[in-house]
Structure prediction request, 524 residues.
Amino acid sequence: MRAAAFIFSTVVFLSAQAGAATAQAPDVAILANACMSCHGIDGKSQGAIPAIGGQDGKQMAQLLKDYASGAVKGTAMTFIAKGYTSDQIDALAAFFSARK
Amino acid sequence: MAPLSRRAFVVATAGATLAALRTGRVLAQARPRVVVIGGGFGGASVARWLRRTDDGIDVTLVERNARFVTCPFSNLVVGGQRSIDSISFSYDAMQRGGVDVVQDTATAIDPVARRVTLQGGRVLSYDRLVLAPGIQLVWNGIEGYDEAAGDIMPHAWHAGPQTLLLRRKLEAMDDGGVVVIAVPDNPYRCPPGPYERASLIAGYLKASKPKSKLIILDAKESFSKQPLFQEAWKTLYPGLVEWRPKSQSGRVVAVKAKDGIVSTEFDDLRPAVANIIPPQRAGQVAVALGLDEGRGFCAVDPRTFESKVAPGVHLVGDAIVAGAMPKSGFAANSQAKVCARAIVSLLRGRPVEEPVLLNTCYSFAAADYGFAIFGAFRPGDSGLIVDVPGTVGTSPLGASAQARALEARYAESWYSNITTEIFA
Prediction:
């Protein structure tokens, strides 16, 4: 009984950990997928729209925050960047910089 | 009577469907099945992103055509800058990507037994159903404008043969002819589309038939990206494009296609070429199921895109009431990605995520002259999709020719990227 209880609690603990570990990734993916409509799968753009996959994450995050604050003017991103919180921008930049 | 009994049918089955869904969960633990009907920007994207998100789900895409011809960029075919082949896509890559693509049409849907019957006789069972039927044209919404009239006065609002028909009519027209484009009241597919079309036809007329003229007959008082289009017409096609809003007898109320007559509230016109874009509603499969509740378009939950009428049935794209989002291929694609992830979450018993949806609609005033409208959206408290403050805007007025040319390159890049994402 004691062993069974131990296993049970371990299983609960492990699955809770797994839940915590994956909690962030799905949130980023649901945001990142939307970016790919313009920037291409995994940020691998064809043509004039910037390829953001594998770019420097810190620079990307800063640029997006500058678009959002109005410090830098672009075209689409002048508006679209305002749709995200600072944390979401950091997560998105990390997501795309990891896509080599 | 028919709509009433149809609605009663759906309401009566809603409770049973909920109960059925619980048993569906047990099945879902084995290998969940999703059936998607409609292979345009919305449906094809749902199918593709379901497989990309969770390859333990069986996905079947039912589409009647072997190839998809995109409405985006079809105005470039009308204007003579692109071939129809360059905007046509097969489903081969989707099949290779693990989606079971079935070329057929659905003849019956049973939302209680969760079964779709196809014309070819095949019966598909599902845990979740996605309908992405796009729009249907409301025949006789303009008096006398039926399918036969559409062969004489093309709508070209489904890309494909109609696009080529309109192009041929423009090519056959004598110099000095008048081209008319009739635009319906909101809501309709691709709000800036008629004005992009007017621009690209004007470009063709200016180059090849310079004594001709183009008149836009509009059922509205204003339109999407209006200052940008009007600036472009003044710059590129002075004196060639005339826009008549509803208050200036712009609304087309009737046509006599065989006699070549287009009638507004106060005028009869006899254009050399008439492009009649009629009023629209959700595609037939959604209306037949009563999912539009007689209102023309279908209400959905903005986080899951599940029908507010039929549990277990999701809808994306032009067929839905999308609140602040326009009816565009881009919007359908963005909704599809959210819908696909929500379906995976629901099938796997995970919480549904909070999305940000996007839309960017590029328009060409000429092949090297582009501009766009942008926006980010989220589920609002009202249960509709709302825009995120500060995110909706357009390219600036008074931009340089270089800036317009760059936006045209952005438009081409967007088209390559989104069609690659879905069809390559």
Remarks:
- Residues 1-24 of chain A have pLDDT under 50 and may be disordered.
- The longest helix of chain A spans residues 2-39.
- Chain A has four helices and no strands.
- The two ends of chain A are 50 Å apart (CA to CA).
